[in-house]
Amino acid sequence: MMDGKRINQIISFLNSLKIKSKRFSEIITVQNISVIQNFNQALTHSSDNKIINYEKLEFFGDAVLRLAASNFIEKKYPQMSVGERSELRAQIVSDEWLTKLGEKIRIEKVIIKGPKALGDENSKNTIIGEATEALIGALYKCFNSIQEVNLWLDDIWEEDAEILLKAPYKFKAKSVLQEWCQSKGFDLPIYKIIEISKKNGDPKRFSCDLLIKGVKESSAFGKSHKQAEKNAAKVLIEKYIIKGKM
Fold first, then answer.
1. Is this model's pTM higher than 0.85 or not?
2. Active-site hit among 62, 84, 96, 120
């Protein structure tokens, strides 16, 4: 059961999101306990409670997030091709984007964790991203509607999408690099991955060296093979190609 202090903490946090929805504000104002319990679940890690935690809402939030992002792209960029929509959506629903959003709204301060998770710095960003996705799932469940999710996220997506579209290499670095190599008559880039750590969520779990014409041109870390390769491609593009040094 939640005590008064926890209820007030959740209400204060939800108010800080500044969701432009009258019916959402009304639910918070009257302190609808069933709704607040959903949000409490979204903000509880399994290390604290094996039964009532954010895992199911995170799974649900994944589908909600993709649908809300699709709605946003349809409204904002109606002329965009299906392929371009998929590429943009992949970035504005990514684990990296969710962690960034979670940090922006300072979700970590209201997540309940058990002792094991509290002492694990490597899992910090992963938990922030997962809880943020669960929060989105809980928001949908308030009304069984996507409306409040879009009212909250559309303004954030509008800003992030414009940044991504002005610098496409930021969200499809490997494709941009491949096209550049082909335009120069080079062989395709070679990515060499080494597993450095065995810890899930470790941002430096994998190291990637990127080779062009057999020469290492950049290297980077990532918590997955894919992220390490993408980061190495970004480093090469930003340091060399954009500045015309290759």
1. no
2. 62
